[in-house]
Design a protein that fits this description.
This protein is of the alpha+beta class and 330 residues long. The chain is 40% helix and 16% strand. The protein is built from 10 helices and 13 strands. The strands form 4 sheets. Strands 7-8-9-5-10 form a 5-stranded mixed sheet. A 4-stranded antiparallel sheet has the order 3-2-11-6, with helices on one face. It is elongated, with a radius of gyration of 23 Å.
Length: 330
Amino acid sequence: MTNDTDGGARNHHFVPQFYLKGFAKPRSKDGKLVVFDLKDRKNFVTRPRNVAAKRDYNRVDIEGQDPNVVESQLAKFEGDADQAFRRIIASRSIDDREDFSFVLVLIARIALSNPSFRGQRGRLISDMGSMMMRNMVATPERWEAVTRQAGAELIGDPVPYEEMRAIVESGGIVATAARETLIEQEIALWPEILPVLEARKWTLLIAPPGSAGFVTSDRPFSLRWNDEAMNRGPYGVGLGCSETTLVFPISHDLALIGSFEDGAGSSVVDERMVAAVNSTMFFSAMRQVYAQADFSINDAGRVVRSFSGSELWRRVRDRPVDDRVDDAGA
């Protein structure tokens, strides 16, 4: 982890190290984590600190504010959450509501602040800004009204209409969403979605003895409609939608399934169910899947196979170079 002159860590994890440790062997910051990279089409072994991170991902550049304030506050949460996860993993139970609350808070954080969703929100804000700029130069009269309203705030004479229109149409001015704005949205929404997660009925899945175990990814949750036809349709899935299932691996041995309709308790599952959970992680990943070692997955025809010998992994490796998966900025 590199540091800036202000003393703050610059390598910010969008999936926390304490969580990734649960899929390393042994469970520690120095444990070995097998990474299956769907973009570079290779697998390698590393430590949790070296994955699911971006430089300055949570840094804020606001005058008078510590640029590491967000990352520092997250570190406090992660220290407590690490202990809660340790107890859940050791007891193989989510009955302790206080400990389980840390799991729900982590799901909320990852759902809001993963690079894919942050990128979507950034593009939406950018598109809206570009639309507003095009609207401002739609006609000479519109541009005159804009400059007249700006009044004293203008420095010097306003840019002539034809010149400004040409700049906007050529992309000379690009609307972008500030990182600080996106982080502020995430912080504001975080407590808002917790009641929605708490309302789901959660079932703890326990991998059977000798299992290859559960895996996770750089976007470690899957939210899908229960009706597969809906997943192929135009309707997006929201955390508050009924008839949906949310899957979240807790560790190599444990995973959660949550729905509004039914569930609760815990269950030791067979390797077929382990493979089904791992398949959801494969398809929800932005770029990387993380595991202790090779793992089971539902391959073509729903046959349970090891991932390294699966048709899915072969297709990833054989994909043309110019057709690699998008890492969503990860």
